[in-house]
Amino acid sequence: MAKVKLPVTAAIRVLRQAGVSFGEHPYQYEEKGGTAVSARELGVEEHCVIKTLIMEDESKAPLVVLMHGDRQVSTKELARAIGAKSVAPCTPDTANRHSGYMVGGTSPFGTRKQMPVYVEETILELPLIYINGGHRGFLVSMPPVELVRVLKPVTVKVGI
To answer: What pTM was estimated for this model as a whole?
Structure first.
């Protein structure tokens, strides 16, 4: 079996620099497959696969929201939680400009721009999470405590 060459992305560099012990999980990426495909390919529950969503408030200020793969973000609740009038997902091109990653390969680690990070509070209750490693078809696994240590996210209750 041929050895898969794993990508060294900005996210991986940040994790290594922070001393995070993480697993590397390449999988066959499918366009518009989302977390259902990555969970299926890796044989894990979709609830443990964490989406990295780039959104913006009414003044176009970008922010990162981390959500369970099998849940959606209530933008109304998120806006209320962060004191904004409104919050909406960015277009793929705008998300790419803010994060430096292509949609489908967006990681909260090593983003091009510094952005506030919000995490659904129930994610922190999981023993292990799978989150994008900065490349399509590549997730990294770690305990959520490492995510908190490196990103220092604000916890929110905005999942639906």
So the answer is: 0.95
